[in-house]
Design brief:
This protein is of the alpha+beta class and about 160 residues long. The chain has 4 helices and 3 strands.
Length: about 160
Amino acid sequence: MIRTVLLPVRAAVGVGKLSAKTGYRTGRLSARSTYRVGRLIGLRRVLVLGAGIGIGLLVAPTSGQELRDKLRRQWESRRAPATDDAVAERVRYELSHSPRTWHLPQPEVEVVAGKAILSGGAPHATGKADIERAAASVPGVADIESRLVVGSGDGG
């Protein structure tokens, strides 16, 4: 009777030992294989990256110095204070492309010394608030003066 009770326990322990030994050996084999394959793939990736950079340099439309100068000019122009017309254009773009305001009547936008002046109509108070919020989020806008009339559906 004891053998009958202990047989499943002994079988479970035996299977556990067997799977542990097999797993250890298989794991050791796979670790070696993974290392070897990783080295091979890693070396190939570095070579392919180098070849890609070389080809890119050969077919580049400008020299590296010209590209650096162009990037430097663009960076400096971004850091320079924007003109009021440029800020107004950014506000118009943001209003016409923002998911909350593109479908609303677009207001007239004027920017004076960083202050955006919005005039026109808004279909409802929520639309007016969305337009004001979107305009205020544009870089270069320091303040908002809202002349939007709620309930007037036309944008002019």
